[in-house]
Design goal:
- The protein has 333 residues and is an all-alpha fold.
- Among the domains are: 94 residues, no CATH class; 88 residues, Non-ribosomal Peptide Synthetase Peptidyl Carrier Protein, Chain A (Orthogonal Bundle); 48 residues, no CATH class.
- The chain is 63% helix and 0% strand.
- The protein contains 14 helices and no strands.
- It is rod-shaped, with a radius of gyration of 54 Å.
């Protein structure tokens, strides 16, 4: 016996050995119930049932057990239909073919509750299917491929329809790169471009959150700094209070430019005076150029004739004239 024959015998022996891991350890999801209101859901329902039966094949040794299992997940109109048929079987003592044969039962179920015109429904579904702004290209491709084999369209027609309902930004990218002629190649390219788009959107959202977080923390930092300043002010409060009191005293001292006249009236020319109590150089030059009085700033006279300076003298003279003469005999010798 050569090596090839020995390996063949060993392979046959291993193939006849029972599996060490029984399939029943796998726990698939139980099918959803089918109530017949949406005929398009029948295909999904049958797929779920077939997956469950395949995993638990040891629990369903014949067709009748498989049919019974699927019947247990029917509701609404489908349940009413098959229930009435089974009641008739119990009365007539004659089983229908669909009860004893699994695939006959599937055909009966599809004939009664699936869409009647599968081709037209598939074409209408493809034409109305669009990739939305908030949608993902993967979901769009899955829904598109679900109807492709039912339409009977060729590769070129399917590729054109798939490209037609894409978003404009994806079409722009495809135009820049180059549009594939094969449907599978086009779908792979759209998936890659769409993935890059959503990754970029994720980066934008992350940057926005970071900027928002920084803007929210800024007032908190400012508040902390304000508290620190307040604490420092309280700790040195007595020193600053003394300094503030001294400044207030200094401000209350009269200056040459803001001091009042002897009769406690504001000086009308205080705004034209410098710190030394004299006219500022600019104001003095302006008055000389315009022949204005250096005292009151009015036109028509000089400082020596200024009424502001003559008023005290006039009052003094009047006081002297109005003083009564001393009585005779009281004058000094």
């Amino acid at each position: 016996m050569d090596l090839a024959q020995a390996l063949q015998l060993l392979a046959n022996k291993i193939g006849r050995m029972p599996s060490q891991k029984p399939k029943t350890l796998i726990k698939p999801r139980v099918p959803d119930t089918f109530e017949g209101s949406d005929p398009n859901k029948l295909e999904v329902f049958l797929f779920q049932c077939q997956m469950y039966l395949a995993v638990h094949s040891n629990d369903f040794p014949d067709d009748e057990s498989k049919v019974t299992f699927i019947l247990s997940y029917l509701k609404g109109s489908p349940q009413d239909w098959f229930q009435s048929e089974l009641n008739h079987v119990m009365t007539s003592r004659q089983l229908h073919d669909w009860f004893a044969t699994y695939w006959t039962f599937i055909d009966e179920l599809q004939c009664l509750f699936s869409p009647h015109d599968l081709i037209t429904n598939a074409m209408n579904s493809l034409e109305s299917l669009k990739l939305r702004d908030s949608g993902k290209a993967t979901r769009y491709t899955i829904d598109f491929n679900r109807y492709t084999r039912k339409t009977g369209w060729n590769e070129q027609a399917l590729t054109r329809q798939f490209y037609k309902n894409l978003l404009d930004q994806l079409k722009d990218e495809i135009t820049r790169i180059g549009k594939p002629t094969a449907l599978k190649t086009l779908q792979d390219l759209v998936a890659t471009l769409d993935q890059r788009y959503w990754e970029h959107q994720l980066e934008i959202n992350r940057d926005k959150k970071a900027s928002t977080s920084n803007s929210n923390s800024a007032p908190a930092n400012k508040s902390t700094a304000s508290n620190n300043r307040s604490s420092n002010q309280q700790s040195g409060g007595s020193k600053q209070d003394n300094q503030q009191q001294q400044r207030n005293k200094d401000q209350q001292k009269p200056t040459a430019s803001t001091s009042a006249t002897p009769d406690n009236k504001p000086n009308p020319i205080a705004k034209f005076l410098g710190p030394d109590g004299k006219l500022t150089p600019e104001e003095r030059k302006c008055r000389l150029d315009n022949k204005l009085c250096l005292c009151c700033g009015k036109l028509g006279h000089m400082v020596s004739d200024c009424p502001q300076l003559l008023k005290p003298k006039v009052k003094a003279c009047a006081a002297t004239v109005s003083t009564p003469a001393a009585p005779l005999g009281l004058e000094k010798a």
